[in-house]
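Reopening this ticket.

The earlier resolution said the output was attached, but the attachment link was broken on my side. Pasting everything inline this time so it's all in one place.
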Amino acid sequence: MDPETRQGGCRCGRVRFAVTGAALVTMACHCDGCRRMTASAYSVSGLYPGAAFRITQGKTVLGGLKGDLQHHFCGFCLSWLFTAGPMLVDMVNVRITLLDDPMTEPPFIECWTETALPWAQTGASRRFPRFPDPAEFPALVAAYAGRQAP
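Inline output:
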């Protein structure tokens, strides 16, 4: 396996996946939907190009609202693995806490801070009251890549 490829999977191990390369950006989302689907204060994810992600074992089922964002879960343990769909345009938003070696640094951005629980702190560098405007993503991706440079 390529050293830049990282493995991950659901809680029960029936679904496994791989991502190649670094995330374009990492984020925490405090929106009501993410809080309800994770049963936590926020979700943590990494945005990857669709070509950098693949399921290596098992199949997923769709959960959540099943619209332009398609939330993929393990059909057995119901772990929320990733989000894809037309709204992400060839991108996959992976729950990076499910990687076998999850990140140790805080997410780079956090969104929906206007609905964040007052005690839920992430340490993110960039904060947005709602979701960032899509036009801001190239600059956010560049800033994250610059921060990750050796």
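Reporter confirms the inline version is readable. The domain at 5-140 is CATH 2.170.150.70 (Metal Binding Protein, Guanine Nucleotide Exchange Factor; Chain A). DSSP finds two helices and eleven strands in the chain.
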